[in-house]
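hey so i finally got around to running the thing on that chain from the lab meeting. sorry it took forever, my laptop kept dying and i had to restart like 3 times. anyway pasting the input first so we r on the same page abt which one it is
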Amino acid sequence: MVTRRRFRLGLLAAAIATVAPGPTGPRLAQACSVALGPQSLPRYPWFAEPGFPSNGVFVSSLDWRDEAGQPLVLVEDAAASALWGAPVRRPATALAPGSVWFPTSDCPDRGACAHRLVIGSTDTTPPTAAGLADVTTFLVTEPTEPGGCSVSCGDYDTLVLRVSGSDDTTPPDHLGILAYVGQDEREVAARTTPDLVVGYDAGPPERTRESTIILGGSLARDRDGGPLRAKGRFCFAVALMDWAGNVGARSAITCLDTTDEDDPTVAPVDTHGCDCGGAGGGGSGWMALGLLGLVRRRRRRR
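ok and heres what got predicted. didnt touch it at all, straight out
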């Protein structure tokens, strides 16, 4: 029995960043069309956060004001932005512990605003060592050809990482995942900077410690050669990063081949067919809203 998988849209509201290499984030054009890249970025606090580190960094277009209406002045870090493929901003002056900041787009009435950042102390403690508990390559066994239905949509293979670890201030599902990638174990061990930065998938509790990477089209096992998207065998390790940019110890190194159906990580799945053109799959209603990602979700058989 195989597990059937579908695409769904996931809104990536905001993220934190550190100076680390990473390709440009995903872009949406037409229905069922996707440019490959990090499918989820690390998530930013959205509701009330009681202890955002005073040295935390921002990857968000949101404007923030304090209780008196004074704006939070953020300055872009050009080097980090170029490496991340997203605007990375840092406070122009140190944030005072205990100060409260509100996103102006969501909270014109700050007195009644549930969304807020309460600034805590400076965070210099890194997350715990990352554990790569599970790596699964989902290969579509009978891919749908693009253009086979009312919209142009083929199937995509995906790589799902289940990464464990924790931090003293950043919630577990908001930690960033840094991937260090190489052709073999020795090359991975020699990497001093990460090759890819992703976040955990949004979803129910049982899904919040997984990160899904779209590998490429299933029809020809397309891979563009980017980090985690190479043809043939490659190896990688991951580490966790908190809201202040502190990076923990790396996981053990894992090696795999996402184009080999006999690879131990591979789980075959059937096609999603032309579901993306139907009532539940998005179809022509998809919109390019910036920082939108495609996240493949599982639907287990009863």
